[in-house]
Amino acid sequence: MNMFMEPGFWSLGSAELWVLIGLLVFIGIVVAAGVPKMAAKALDDKAAKIQSELDEAARLRAEAEAMLAQIRQEKAEAEAQAADMLAAAEADARRIEAEAKAKLEETLARRQALAERRIAQAEAQATAEVKAAAADLAAKAAQDILTARLATAKADPLIDSAIAQIGDKLN
C-alpha cells in the first residue's frame, strides 16, 4: 500500500513527513546551488579528457604502426643488402680461390721445370765426368800398354813425348 495514503502521515508529528520535507529542502538546495550543472560539467570534462587521451592513444598507435612499417622496410633492406654482401663475398672467395689455384699451378710448373733443368744439368755433369774418367782411364791404359811395349823395344824420346801429350789432349 501507498505510504502517503496512510492515516497520520500528513500530521506534523509524523517523523516520515519531516524526513520528506528535509529531503525536498535538501534537493532544492542542491539544485539551487547548481550541483547538477557542476556534476554534468565535471562529467563532461572527464569525458573530454578521456576522449583526448583516446585521440592521443590513437595518434600514438598510428605513429607506432608507421614506425613498425618503417622498421620492417629497413629490416628487409638490410637483409637484402646482407644477401648481396654475402653473394659478393662468395664471388670474391671463388675468384681468389681460382687465382690462388692458378698461381699454385704456375709455381708448381716453374719448380718442376727448375727441377728438370737441375736434373738435366746433373745428368750432363755426370755424363761429362764419366766421359772424362773413361778418357783418363783409356789414356792411362794406352800409356801403360805403350810403355810396356816400348820398354821391351828401344826407347825413343819422340814417342815418349807423344804419349805424354795424348793424356793432355784427351782431357
TrEMBL record:
How would you describe this protein's topology in the membrane? Single-pass membrane protein
Signal peptide stretch: none
Query: Which superkingdom is the protein from?
Result: Bacteria
Record has Cell membrane as a keyword: yes
Looking up InterPro entries in the UniProt record yields: ATP_synth_b/b'su_bac/chlpt
> What's the main place this protein lives?
membrane
Q: Where in the cell is it found?
A: Cell membrane; Endomembrane system
UniProt keywords (A-Z) are:
ATP synthesis, Cell membrane, CF(0), Coiled coil, Hydrogen ion transport, Ion transport, Membrane, Transmembrane, Transmembrane helix, Transport
Which residues, by range, are in coiled-coil regions? 40-125
Q: What is the annotated quaternary arrangement, including any partners?
A: F-type ATPases have 2 components, F(1) - the catalytic core - and F(0) - the membrane proton channel. F(1) has five subunits: alpha(3), beta(3), gamma(1), delta(1), epsilon(1). F(0) has three main subunits: a(1), b(2) and c(10-14). The alpha and beta chains form an alternating ring which encloses part of the gamma chain. F(1) is attached to F(0) by a central stalk formed by the gamma and epsilon chains, while a peripheral stalk is formed by the delta and b chains.
The role this protein plays is: F(1)F(0) ATP synthase produces ATP from ADP in the presence of a proton or sodium gradient. F-type ATPases consist of two structural domains, F(1) containing the extramembraneous catalytic core and F(0) containing the membrane proton channel, linked together by a central stalk and a peripheral stalk. During catalysis, ATP synthesis in the catalytic domain of F(1) is coupled via a rotary mechanism of the central stalk subunits to proton translocation.
Q: Which NCBIfam families match?
A: PRK14475.1 (NF011045)
Concerning its family, UniProt says: Belongs to the ATPase B chain family.
What is the protein name given in its UniProt record?
ATP synthase subunit b
Write down the species. Answer: Brevundimonas pondensis
Name the lineage: Bacteria, Pseudomonadati, Pseudomonadota, Alphaproteobacteria, Caulobacterales
